[in-house]
């Protein structure tokens, strides 16, 4: 019985009709659970919707917990380790935030609403495309970490240069970091900008280099994604 439940709730390569229905149903529930966050005023309909989706999440969490040994394949230790996996913690946070929301105080309201948005990560469990993306991220994590370190270093150095070049324009170093980030991404909101000739030159260089640096993680992800798709096609042929 537990094995049948596990096969239904856990997505796999060859989905049966029941498994597809369950996955689609849970995706709809996740999206529905986010709807109450789109309004600021109290609504009876959204309150009932919140209660129903929370109950469904609790049932889903319990089913996954009692079948954890099939997923982790570590015997009784699976039931101990499962609650500490990323998606299990996401599920638990989504449930706890809703339970707190039922008895919230005004002081905790904003924090609770923010935590409830973590439900969007539950979609990774039910979407094969998102699962593929997550798999690519794991495979390319070393390359992405190197690029991430490069981005952070570049932002810090740019901020340090502009902060010393235009001390009157940038009151704090955080302002310089903000400028460096929006210049790197070529967004340019225009709320903070260089006014001197050398400051504008630094901005131009930062924006040009930013295009190249931002393109690195995109190219890594694209190459990894295409490679993973080819590997999946190859496995299906064999």
TrEMBL record:
Domain Ion transport: 20-227
The keyword Transcription regulation is assigned to this record: no
Gene Ontology biological process terms from the UniProt entry: action potential
Its membrane topology: Multi-pass membrane protein
Transmembrane region(s): 21-39, 45-63, 84-102, 144-165, 177-195, 201-226
A GO MF label: voltage-gated potassium channel activity
GO cellular component terms listed in the entry, alphabetical order: voltage-gated potassium channel complex
Signal sequence bounds: none
Keywords for this protein: Ion channel, Ion transport, Membrane, Potassium, Potassium channel, Potassium transport, Transmembrane, Transmembrane helix, Transport, Voltage-gated channel
Protein's cellular compartments: Membrane
Highest taxon listed in the record's lineage: Bacteria
InterPro entries per record: Ion_trans_dom (IPR005821), VG_K_chnl (IPR028325), Volt_channel_dom_sf (IPR027359)
SUPFAM superfamilies assigned: Voltage-gated potassium channels (SSF81324)
PANTHER family per record: POTASSIUM VOLTAGE-GATED CHANNEL PROTEIN SHAB (PTHR11537:SF254), VOLTAGE-GATED POTASSIUM CHANNEL (PTHR11537)
Protein name: Ion transporter
């Amino acid at each position: 019985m537990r094995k049948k439940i596990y096969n239904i709730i856990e997505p796999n390569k060859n989905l049966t009709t029941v498994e597809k229905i369950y996955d689609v149903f849970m995706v709809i529930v996740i999206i529905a659970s986010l709807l109450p966050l789109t309004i600021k005023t109290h609504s009876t309909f959204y309150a009932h919707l919140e209660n129903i989706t929370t109950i469904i999440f609790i049932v889903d969490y319990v089913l996954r917990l009692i079948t954890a040994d099939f997923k982790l394949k570590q015997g009784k230790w699976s039931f101990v380790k499962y609650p500490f996996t990323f998606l299990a913690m996401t599920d638990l946070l989504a449930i706890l935030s809703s339970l707190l929301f039922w008895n919230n105080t005004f002081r905790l309201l904003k924090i609770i609403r923010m935590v409830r948005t973590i439900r969007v990560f539950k979609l990774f469990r039910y979407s094969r495309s998102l699962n593929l993306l997550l798999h690519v991220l794991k495979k390319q994590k070393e390359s992405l970490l190197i690029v991430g370190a490069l981005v952070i270093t570049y932002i810090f150095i740019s901020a340090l240069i502009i902060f010393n070049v235009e001390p009157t324009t940038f009151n704090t170093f955080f302002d310089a970091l903000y400028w460096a980030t929006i210049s790197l991404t070529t967004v340019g909101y225009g709320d903070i900008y260089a006014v001197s000739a050398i400051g504008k030159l630094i901005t131009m260089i930062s924006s040009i280099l930013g295009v190249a640096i931002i393109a690195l993680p995109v190219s890594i992800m694209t190459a990894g994604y295409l490679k993973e798709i080819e590997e999946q096609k190859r496995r299906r042929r064999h």
